[in-house]
Every structure is written in structure tokens, then in C-alpha cells.
Design a protein that fits this description.
The structure is a single chain. This protein is an alpha/beta fold. The protein is about 30% helix and about 15% strand. The protein contains 16 helices and 18 strands. Strand 5, helix 6 and strand 6 form a beta-alpha-beta unit. The protein is globular and about 70 Å long. It holds the Pfam family Metallophos. This is Serine/threonine-protein phosphatase 7 isoform X6. Its cofactor is Mn(2+). InterPro entries: Calcineurin-like_PHP, Metallo-depent_PP-like, PPP_phosphatase, Ser/Thr-sp_prot-phosphatase.
């Protein structure tokens, strides 16, 4: 892809013809309540009820070469669309073919990058902007670009992951950053976060966002994004002196358990090296519990501690805790002076006295002889969807020549954003989240579009260990696949749940436990009722077919009774 800012603007006549052709299919009729009008060479958001107007949509460059103007036009269009167009009409603005082309182009670049990318920025006027979690807050990303400036020949960007989840515009954030990556592959670096996985995109709303915006094409688009997530690098080293990643440190591969333990036991964990990190196979569906690729889980989930040493997280949770001694050892071993990680916002730090509360977007966590460790969070007024909004500021870090190891931090307030319906339950909470089972990870895409299990949000979750119960009921059901194996399915949520809402006098954690159980019982009851109807109808049809075929002499019913059961 070229870096030169040359754009070939599409003619308005061609756009209208393409728009008219796209409306020939009744399934693809455009929402004309909110349209985009092309006027004086600018994209102007305008409300209209005239059926003769068509929505302008983004066109992939015919020569497959995106330009600076094309990326800027995408950002401007997304901003207008977020304010004037219903989410269900987003697919009419950004067609599947554009998502396909852009994710393929970006993935082809990302897959060639090592697990830890080297950011070479030794020019006299070079500077690097480091960005933390964004969580689908597109308007705040635009605000950050406005404050810090967009990528350029002298300005680099390193993003520490968590682009999606808990916000309404994860698709817009992803597409804009991927477009910048394709345009300037050596000026912008996109690292992986713990939310860039199948399970957590399902749990925190991104999968629902994709289905809402792309409808029947949602499964295809969602899988394209998942494939792109698999090739995101895990860390960066900037100017040979600054290390950035999403979560933090990782164990040595020699400390990795060979199999998932049934019971968590305290064992010696040694600090890993960048050489060991380079050997991790980062293409994955979920975060592994065992083997050498457990380093992948560590680097996305680990957190700093004031207590010296490196130890596993308590309970059945992901990642490690590491102390100031580990920070000193890692910096000294790799001749580094600064670490900037992300992963923790004001929700994770609430009630903690050891570290900063992240209300200004960053915190100095370790200050050791060889350097410093900061946590950086770039989603202000977080979370967009949740029980509590923290009214926090986001922040970004600027590293500048000649001393890249002396960062400057800039806090910024939340940008004005449109009001939208949430894609995730307000009950969803990530703090100290238990690690999901392999069945939970595998089952998140087990349903087709007509069987979306949780259209209103993610699956209810409650930690029954709060009540002293280690084996609480699950929404996962293991069933035979008819081929001698098994498959794990999720119980679909019931449209109506008896017993809810609960009386206000019930206190936590019993309130959440009762809500979880009522919803699960209601879901199972709904499945039984629905299954009886389906099975009754299906047996009627099968019986008629067997009777007809038997009368025609094609089948012997007595032989069929002892044969294998037809799966259909």
C-alpha cells in the first residue's frame, strides 16, 4: 500500500448508481430516515424522508491503494453516521466487501510482524504516542487524534490493545486503526489486548454489536475480525529502551504447566524473557491454560503488585502478579528503562490503596533503580455500558527524541457521544473475572443468526464461590453430536423470566445468585417447551415420510427401527 496522500474521489453519479442498484433487493433496502448527502465535496449528515435520496457509502479504492484522504474521509463519515444513522443501517454505509478487503490487507501486514515489534524512531524530531485501552469509544479516539495529531512520518503510534467491548463503536475503532495500519505500516503498531478474543468479544458486547450492524452477514464479519485479532503482536520495544504491552510480564516457558491443574497449587514461577516471548504461537481462539503458549495468557492478563515476587493469580483466574523486584530484573536483563502497560482502568483500581486510582488515565506503579513502570488507560468516562460510570479522564503518553525513556502524560476528558442502546448487560463485570472453561470459549459461536442466544447482552455470570459453592450451575450443556463425540451448547435465554424483578430487600451476593438461578431456570423451561413443540412437529413430518416411503416399497420399517437414527 502506498503512503502517498493521493486520492481518486468517486463521482457522485457513480455512487448514486451503485446505491440504486444496491436497493434492488428488498432485503437490502436502505433506511431513508437518516441519509448522507454529498454537497460541495463534503460528507454532510442530513435527516431526510425523501425516498429519492440514497445513503452515501464508503467505496474501497479500485486500485486497492488507500490514501490519507481516504482514511480521513472514513473517520469523518463514521463520526456523522454515529450521530445520524441507526446501527442497523451501518452495513449500508460500510459494505461487507470493504470490511473483507481492509481486514485482509491489515492481516497480511500484521502476520509478518514478530510477537514483540521493534519501533525504530531514532529521527531528531521523532515522537511516539502510546495509547491504552479504548473499548469501542470511537469519539474519544477522534478526540485523542485531535489532541495529539494523526500518524505521520515523524509521529509514531503504539496501541496497547482492548479496542472493543463495553462501548458502542468497536467496529469503527477497529476499521479506522486497521486503515491507518495499512496506510502507514511502519508508523502505527497495534498490539493485542485480552478483549481481542472470541470469548470476551462475546461476553462484553462486541459480537452483539457486529450482529446488530451487519444482520445476516454478522457471522461472516465477526469471524473476519477474529482472524485479524489472531495476528496482532503482543508487545513492543520502542527506541531500544521502552517496553509496552497490554497486561504485563509472563512466566518462563520452563514454568508452564503441561496440563491444566484440577486444583490450583502454589508452585514456583520464573520470569520469562523476550527471547521466550518470540517463540509463542499467537494465533489462538482463547487464552490457554497450559503448555508454552500460556505465556500468551500471562502477557494479556498479568498485573503489577507492591509485593515482591512472581506468583499466579488466586483462584481460577488468568495471569500473574509481579512485584517491583520483577520489574527491576526485567528492565536490567533487557537493558530497558521504561515500561508502559494497560489493562486496568478505574474499575479495576477502585478500592485499592497500593496504586493510583486511574482517574487521570495513568498511574506510576513501580519506581525501581533501572527505571519505571506505568499503567495507561485511554477510555475516559468508562465504561460506556455498565452499572457505574467513573467519570474518569483518559490519557496518552508521548515519548520524544532524544530521551524516549522520559514520558510526558496528557489527560483528556470524554468527548460528546450519541446515546445508543447497550450491546452488553450492565451486570457484566470484568474485575477478578474467573477464567472461562474451554467449553465456554468453544461455545460462543455455536449458534447461527436465527439462534442468537443473548440478543440483549452477554450470558449472565455469577461467582458462586462467594457463597462457598465451587461447582455452581452452568449455562453450558454437553450433548452428543451423533458421531460418537460431544459438542457444548449454550442454553438460549428466555424471553420472559418468572420471578423477576426481585424484591428490593434482597442483599448481595444473594440477589445476584437468585437472579442468575431464576434466569437459568426460565431458560431451561423455555428450552423444554420449545423442544417439545419442535419434536412433536418433527415426528409428525418424519412419520408421514416413513409411511409414504414404506408404502412405495423403498423402505422396510422394521429394518429402519433397528438402524441408525437420522440426524435430520
Amino acid at each position: 500500500m502506498r503512503d502517498s496522500p493521493v486520492v481518486e474521489s468517486s463521482k457522485i453519479g457513480d455512487a448514486l448508481i451503485d446505491g440504486a442498484q444496491s436497493m434492488s433487493n428488498d432485503d437490502d433496502m436502505l433506511d431513508v430516515e437518516h441519509v448522507l448527502r454529498f454537497e460541495n465535496g463534503m460528507n454532510v449528515a442530513q435527516e431526510s424522508l425523501s425516498p429519492s435520496c440514497f445513503q452515501q457509502f464508503l467505496l474501497w479504492p479500485p486500485d486497492d491503494c488507500i490514501t490519507l484522504e481516504w482514511v480521513q474521509d472514513m473517520m469523518s463519515t463514521f463520526e456523522h453516521v454515529s450521530q445520524k444513522v441507526l446501527p442497523s443501517a451501518f452495513c449500508n454505509i460500510v459494505r461487507t466487501i470493504l470490511v473483507d478487503k481492509l481486514t485482509d490487507a491489515a492481516s497480511s501486514i500484521l502476520c509478518e510482524e514478530p510477537n514483540c515489534v521493534e519501533v525504530d524512531c531514532e529521527g531528531e524530531d521523532s515522537r511516539v504516542i502510546v495509547v491504552g485501552d479504548i473499548h469501542g469509544q470511537f469519539h474519544d479516539l477522534l478526540s485523542l487524534f485531535k489532541h495529539a495529531g494523526v500518524p505521520s512520518e515523524s509521529q509514531f503510534y503504539v496501541f496497547n490493545g482492548n479496542y472493543v467491548g463495553k462501548g458502542a463503536w468497536g467496529i469503527e475503532v477497529l476499521l479506522v486503526l486497521l486503515a491507518w495500519k495499512v496506510l502507514m505500516p511502519h508508523r502505527i503498531y497495534l498490539l493485542c489486548g485480552n478483549h481481542e478474543s472470541r470469548y470476551y468479544t462475546g461476553r462484553y458486547g462486541f459480537e452483539n454489536e457486529v450482529w446488530t450492524k451487519y444482520g445476516k452477514q454478522g457471522e461472516y464479519v465477526y469471524n473476519k475480525f477474529l482472524e485479524c485479532f489472531k495476528v496482532l503482536p503482543l508487545a513492543s520495544v520502542i527506541a531500544n529502551c521502552v517496553y509496552t504491552t497490554h497486561g504485563g510480564f509472563f512466566r518462563s516457558k520452563h514454568s508452564a504447566p503441561s496440563r491444566k491443574p484440577k486444583h490450583r497449587k502454589t508452585q514456583r514461577v520464573d520470569l520469562g524473557s523476550l527471547a521466550e516471548l518470540s517463540e509463542v504461537k499467537r494465533a489462538r481462539i482463547g487464552s490457554p491454560y497450559e503448555g508454552p503458549n500460556i505465556l500468551l495468557t500471562d502477557i494479556l492478563w498479568s498485573k503489577p503488585s507492591k509485593r515482591n515476587g512472581l506468583r499466579e493469580n488466586a483462584g481460577r483466574k488468568y495471569g500473574l502478579w509481579w512485584g517491583p523486584d520483577c520489574t527491576e530484573a526485567f528492565l536490567k536483563r533487557h537493558n530497558l528503562k521504561l515500561i508502559i502497560r494497560s489493562h486496568e482502568g478505574p474499575d479495576a483500581r477502585a478500592g485499592q490503596d497500593d496504586f493510583g486510582n486511574m482517574m487521570i488515565g495513568y498511574s506510576l506503579d513501580h519506581d525501581v533503580e533501572s527505571g519505571k513502570l506505568y499503567t495507561l488507560f485511554s477510555a475516559p468516562d468508562y465504561p460506556q455500558f455498565g452499572q457505574k460510570r467513573y467519570n474518569n479522564e483518559g490519557a496518552y503518553a508521548i515519548l520524544q527524541s532524544p530521551d524516549f525513556a522520559s514520558p510526558s502524560f496528557f489527560s483528556f476528558k470524554a468527548a460528546e457521544r450519541p446515546t445508543v442502546d447497550p450491546y452488553v448487560d450492565s451486570d457484566a463485570d470484568e474485575m477478578d473475572l474467573p477464567a472461562p472453561s474451554s467449553s465456554q470459549i468453544a461455545s460462543t459461536s455455536a449458534f447461527c443468526a436465527s439462534q442468537r442466544p443473548y440478543p440483549g447482552g452477554s450470558r449472565p455470570i455469577f461467582d458462586f464461590s462467594l457463597l462457598g459453592i465451587d461447582n455452581g450451575p452452568s449455562w453450558s450443556v454437553e450433548l452428543g453430536d451423533g458421531l460418537g463425540g460431544t459438542q457444548v451448547m449454550q442454553v438460549p435465554r428466555a424471553p420472559v423470566v418468572e420471578g423477576l424483578p426481585l424484591p428490593p430487600n434482597i442483599q448481595e451476593p444473594h440477589r445476584s445468585a437468585y437472579k442468575y438461578l431464576f434466569e437459568l431456570v426460565g431458560a431451561l423451561k423455555h428450552v423444554v417447551v420449545t423442544r417439545v413443540r419442535i419434536m412433536a412437529h418433527g415426528w409428525f413430518v418424519v412419520s408421514r415420510v416413513l409411511l409414504f416411503r414404506n408404502q412405495a416399497g423403498f423402505l422396510n420399517f422394521r429394518r429402519l427401527r433397528t438402524g441408525p437414527v437420522c440426524q435430520h
